[in-house]
Design goal:
Number of helices: 3
CATH superfamily: BH3618-like
CATH class: Mainly Beta
Shape: globular
Oligomer: single chain
Length: about 190
């Protein structure tokens, strides 16, 4: 059975949405951007801005519970990726990221699930970092030793990659993606 690698099914749905909304398409906003858009395939007016948390928060980490990994059908660690919902209801300058309840996706099976963490380090409204100037050629994602990497782990401590390969790129910016679309990202995330 063939499937689009950008389409994911959330069998349990997503909190705050009608239970029947289970199929979504994931699109990268730009080639090297940490931002993505998750659009409902069943309701045009429903979509979320997502962020690769590892690109924005280099110290972000958690253990994916075995139960969640099993429900997602994760057989190989490289098939699992993680995104967090961005709440930009008050504008991108005041945007927050839900680090407490990330979306875990199995890229091989096309399955998704929102995982609620029991971790006091994270909140549902963590401020989105402001872009930094790269004067002096130093990027926040690199240090003198090279690029920083971050990961989650499955209960057996196997590292999982931070972003899926081959996700289609959309030619839009975060400021224009939500234009004309209702985004419930600030509701019930």
């Amino acid at each position: 059975m063939s499937r689009s690698q950008n389409v994911f099914t959330f069998p349990a749905g997503l909190p705050g949405l009608p239970r029947e909304l289970t199929r979504f398409e994931l699109t990268a906003l730009a080639k090297d951007s940490p931002f993505f858009f998750l659009q409902s395939l069943q309701e045009d007016g429903i979509g979320f801005i997502l962020a690769n948390p590892f690109a924005l928060f280099p110290d972000y980490e958690f253990e994916l519970p075995e139960e969640d990994a099993a429900v997602l059908g994760v057989k190989k660690p490289q098939d699992a990726v993680v995104f967090c919902i961005v709440n930009a209801a008050q504008g991108f300058e005041n945007a927050t990221v839900n680090l407490l309840a990330p979306l875990a996706l199995n890229t091989a099976a096309g399955a998704g699930r929102q995982v609620v963490l029991n971790d006091r380090r994270y909140s549902v409204r963590h401020p989105l970092p402001r872009p930094r100037s790269n004067s002096g050629g130093h990027s926040p994602d690199t240090d003198d030793a090279g690029p920083k990497t971050a990961s989650i782990t499955v209960s057996d401590k196997v590292s999982l990659p931070a972003a899926p390969a081959g996700i289609r790129t959309q030619t839009a910016s975060p400021a224009t993606v939500g234009a004309g679309k209702k985004s419930p990202a600030g509701e019930g995330e």
